[in-house]
Structure formats: C-alpha cells, structure tokens
C-alpha cells in the first residue's frame, strides 16, 4: 500500500515531539564545540551575544521551520514546492546536505561507542593522541586515496547504522518518539552525574573561572558575534530541513511558538551544562599538569578523543567517568543522527509515495553503505574533517540564507506564516519576528559567508586544498547544491489527497478530522 491510501503519521504527544526536537538539537556540537567557543570569545561575556543570537536568529528561524512543516505537512522539498516551484531545489539541497552529514556523523558515534569500551581499561595508555590516530584509526601519514580498511571502526559503525535504521523503520511514533523518550532522560541523567563528578575534582574552580570570567572588551569584536550566531545555527538543527520534517508530523492545532521556546532553551541549557562539565574537567587537568588552562583547552575530536582520555587516566575513578562521558556522547550523537536520516527518508517517501520500511531499507541502507565504505579507512579522519568543514560552512549556513531570502524577500510570506503560527500559539509573534527573519538573520548569515570565504582564501583549511581532499571538500558542498537543483527538475507526482493542504477562502489551512483527532496536548 502506498502513501496515497494513508494519512500522514503524527506524533503521539507533545512531549514526544519535544523530546525528538530536543534530541535532534542536542548533539556533538553542544558537548565539544560550545565550551571552547565560549572560552575563546570572552568567557562569561560570550553568553550575552549568544543569548541575543538565540532570540534574534535561532528561535525565530526555528518557529518558521515549525510553521512551514506543520502548514504543508511535507518534507522540505515538497513543502518548499508549495511555496513556489523553484524553491523545491532548496529542499533537495537540504536533503543532500543531510545525506553528507549522516554519512560521517555516524562514524563519530561509532568512535564514542568504542571509547566507552576502552574506558574500562584505559586502553589508550599514556599516549592517547598516538592511540587515537595510529592504533585505533590507523591513519595514513600522507593523505591520499584510501588504502586500507579499519575493522575496529567498521563493526561499531555497522552496529550504529543497524540501530538507526531499525528505529526509523518502526516509524515516527513507535520508533523515533519512543527512542527519544528513552534516550533523552538517559542522556540527562548520565550527564548530570558526570557534571557533578567533574565539579568536585581538584582544580574544577580554576576551569570554571576560566570559562565564566567575563572579558567585556570582547563584545566590541565582530568575530565574537559571528561566533555566537554560528554556534546557534549549528547547534539548533536549523537550516537543513530537520525541523521542517519533524513539524510536518504535528497536528494543525499544536502550539508552535511555545514548542520552539522549550526546545531552544533546553538546547542552550544543555550547552551551558556541558560547558560546566568540560571546563571543570579541563581545570583538573591543568592543575595536575601544573600549566595554565589555555594549554589544555581544545575542541572537537581533539577534546573528546585525545584530551578527555588523558584526563580520565589521571582522575580518581576515571573509568566510570569515561564510560559516562562517551556513552553520553554516543546518545547525543545518535538522537541527532536519527533526525538527520529522517529528513532523507521523509523526502523520498513524499517523492515516491512508497511505504516507510522499503524506503528505510533502500535509502537508509544506501546511506549506511556509503558511510561504511568511505570512513572506516586509513584516511577516514581526514575525509571526515574536510567534509564537516565545507558542508557546515558552505552548505548549512548558505542553504539557510537562500531559504530566508526566498521566503522573506522574494515571496514575502513572513506575514502569512506569522498568522499561521499565531493561530494556535499561546505566545504571539510580533514585528520583532519579521524583523529578525527579514533583516537580522539574513545579514548575519551573509556576513558569516563573507567572513568564512575570506579566511578560506587567506589560508587553505587544513592544507587540504593542495590535495584531493581540498577539492573533495569543495566538491561535497557544491555537489549538494547541484544535486538539489537536478532533483528539483525531476517531474513530481501529484501529492495524495490526504496530504494536500486544504485551505479556506482566505487561503488559511483548514483542520481535518484527522488533525483534530491527533491533537497534541
């Protein structure tokens, strides 16, 4: 049976939707990106531009994505097509971005799973950096074409993909919602225990002082504000179709604005909690080594898989701390990965009218195969680093900018979407929402593009532009855009009647009996 004979699936409860949205937003970037960004950009003073960025860009864009998803009840390509036919390309562009991100994001989750096991015996020994790059990843000294397969990465990566595809195969309510209702409380419990342990370490106060001591002079530095907006864009899962997709499973009468506020502030609260845990631990490391906190601060892969193992080896009951940290990292990554792959699944379902399980098996399986072929190799880390940089800087942010320009400037639909959101939301949107989306956010995103390109031309990222990886990085970002445009030109079958938006004489969507029956309370 195809989708033509089915009503669109809905979340079982408002709590279920919020758990899924929060699970998507809380990911690896919350744990290993935010603390370092805050430290480098004014410490406690960074929280001011961060909060302003949340209120003027993060939450407004989140509300817009919720509104478009719920109104059209489609994945990004089909939803944007109902805005205007050419905008469908933006949706497929976002789907292509999700495909790229899913292929390497799963690898980091697999690393975290392995390192949870390594923590029991502190298998990295006294040289965690050498262990990570040589003993675990078997990274080639010279970056080139893959030449060897790494079984220690392949098998946990395969397990991660099996878990993700099983959850997605069960559906939105029975799979994604139920999984997040388990994973998110578990993540919070594990991370709170981890943070409590971290703040009781010797030197924790030194680390927290370094993180939260405000350097107010940094607020006059434009790069600090760019960093704040960048952190919000990259941590809220906005700009690449996830929230449009998740909101498409909401009933018509769901409160959009309040849901966005809950998800946005929950995400930011977890980031601050992560900052406390990470810097308490770094403070311990700095004191143990007799060095300044600046000597041990790092972010990304280096923080999680090199700095933290070194710290775990030094601290009392380090094995337990390590298990908690890496399990938390794996859960945070897994909930985000599920949401990323769901964008692809939903888009293909809307495009073909096929049932969920065959789409998950074919499309999700293809994503898994690409991931398993490319990244468990001796150049997997370098490929991951290059893909992550280019798809984030010139995929997600640029797609969000084009999306806002089309909706706000070309089509001038912000008034209409504001009315749609206000119709069922307790917190009403005002002029500030249209100003943020029509002026502030596009300007900031545009400046981020200019600033990033300037830095790119001044210094090749990671030196990759002198190798095939440099061209591969640009190719991944440009290829995602090209795929979006090409897919948009493929003839689109008419949507099933059950999924076609029904409007009244004023052009406002009418609630159906199915909508009212599935109202999220």
TrEMBL record:
It is a multi-pass membrane protein. InterPro entries: Na/ntran_symport, SNS_sf. The chain crosses the membrane at residues 12-32, 44-68, 89-113, 149-170, 182-204, 224-249, 261-286, 319-345, 357-384, 390-411, 431-450, 470-492. It comes from the Bacteria. It comes from Streptomyces cacaoi. It is found in: Membrane. Residues 499-521 are annotated as: Disordered. The keyword Transport applies. Keywords: Membrane, Transmembrane, Transmembrane helix, Transport. GO terms for cellular component: membrane. It holds the Pfam family SNF. This is Transporter.
